[in-house]
Design a protein that fits this description.
7-stranded mixed beta sheet, alpha/beta, binds pyridoxal-5'-phosphate, Aspartate Aminotransferase, domain 1, 399 residues, Aspartate Aminotransferase, domain 2, 4-stranded mixed beta sheet
């Protein structure tokens, strides 16, 4: 069967929830992936930031093989060695004291939202359950995380939304100050908005948010599902902004492409979850946690994050050079290896043209080309991207 047969079968047998690209990727090594016709691509999507160590990583493969031979799954009725070790590494290298493991970003955010509600409930503040989020944010597709997500298009048709979410304009500290009330349990923010278009908050904004939360006695929760695990050149993006949250969520890259999410918190907050309050059958199971442990050790190994920062800066400077040459680029945005160019036109056609040249990039928020390569991307691979972009933009927009 060729890829066309599979594409037809997909239409017949799989829910039509995705506007899928008409190729089927079957293998990969590092930043390269190969489709079912043997065509090679350079991957600047990396499973939407879920493959920080790239594809076909032998260390991850061996870890999974060895763990699978010992034990794939038990249940959180038992102590799980790699889960405990992963929790230790994540908390020792962050603001957090405790970790809870689940299977996705949405689930990690659900956990955070439940934790915020429970934290104030435990203090007798039963009306304090509102969570404030920002316009343009993305927090997931479950009912509560949809209600948290600051984009009405995703909620359409799924009304009524879960109660208790308030949205304020992105980067507007006065609007947030006005919105915070005695009912506010938490402010939930992506340090850099990913799906919303790689939006970096204005200088000083997150620090002011931290101050507002402290003043109001509510929690600051950071959704680092996309920005975490080294993506910005720091282990966690909040380190770029000189603040610490009370709660943080992780997923995407945390286990190198194996499904996993995590909710991290300080002891003070985490203690509101006691036996029976929150759970997940697969969360932090031996297989996923062993991969998470391997990935965390790699990212924390000597020189890894410094290399992410260096290649991130290089990608940034190459994109800036393109922006100075091509009128059609409105802005270059991002930190580390989470970078984007905002175009003065829709980006979908450009994405298809780049794909024809063997480059996989993602378009989000209609006009934004988002670059989320594996964190092991090389300067030469970045040069291939920017050369192809240069060529394509010259044809599309005129230099
Ligand atoms: C992708 C993403 C999510 C949702 O993660 P899933 O694993 O798809 O549930 C939540 N928040 C942010 C910031 C994301 O980028």
């Amino acid at each position: 069967m060729g890829s066309d047969d599979f594409i037809a079968m997909n239409r017949e047998y799989v829910f039509n929830t995705y506007g899928r690209i008409p190729i089927m990727l079957v293998e990969g090594t590092g930043c390269k992936v190969v489709d079912s016709n043997g065509r090679e691509y350079l991957d600047f999507i990396a499973g939407l930031a879920a493959c920080p160590l790239g594809h076909g990583h032998l260390g991850i493969a061996e870890t999974l093989y060895n763990q699978a031979r010992r034990l794939i799954h038990v249940s959180n009725l038992f102590h799980i060695e790699p889960q405990i070790q992963l929790a230790k590494i994540l908390t020792e290298n962050s603001f957090a004291d405790k970790a809870f493991f689940c299977n996705s970003g949405a689930e990690a955010n659900e956990g955070a939202i439940k934790l915020a509600r429970k934290f104030f409930h435990d203090r007798g503040e039963h009306d304090r359950y509102h969570v404030i989020t920002l316009d343009g944010s993305f927090h997931g597709r479950t009912l509560a995380t949809l209600a948290a997500t600051g984009q009405t298009k995703y909620r359409k048709g799924f009304e009524p939304p879960v109660e208790g979410f308030v949205h304020v304009p992105f980067g507007d500290i006065r609007a947030l100050e006005t919105a915070i009330s005695a009912q506010t349990a938490a402010v939930l923010i992506e340090p850099i908005q990913g799906e919303g278009g790689v939006n970096v908050p204005p200088e000083g904004y997150l620090r002011e948010v931290r101050d507002l939360c402290d003043g109001a006695g509510c929690l600051l929760m950071l959704d680092e599902v996309q920005t975490g695990m080294g993506r910005t050149g720091k282990l966690f993006a909040y380190e770029n902004f000189g603040i610490q949250p009370d709660v943080m969520t992780l997923a995407k890259g945390i286990a190198g492409g194996v499904p996993m999410g995590a909710t991290l918190a300080t002891d003070k907050v985490a203690q509101s979850f006691v036996p029976g309050t929150h759970a997940s059958t697969f969360g932090g199971n031996p297989l996923a946690a062993s991969a998470g442990l391997f990935v965390a050790n790699e990212i924390l190994s000597e020189g890894f994050l410094a290399r992410v920062k260096a290649t991130g800066d290089y990608l940034r400077s190459q994109l800036e050079t393109l922006a100075s040459k091509h009128e059609i680029i409105r802005e270059v945005r991002g930190i580390g290896l989470m970078q984007a160019i905002d175009l003065k036109m829709p980006g979908a056609d450009l994405v298809a043209t780049l794909r024809d040249q063997g480059l996989l990039v993602n378009c989000t928020a209609d006009t934004v080309l988002r670059f989320l390569p594996p964190l092991i991307v090389t300067k030469e691979e970045i040069d291939s991207l920017t050369a192809a972009l240069d060529k394509t933009l010259t044809k599309t927009g005129g230099a």
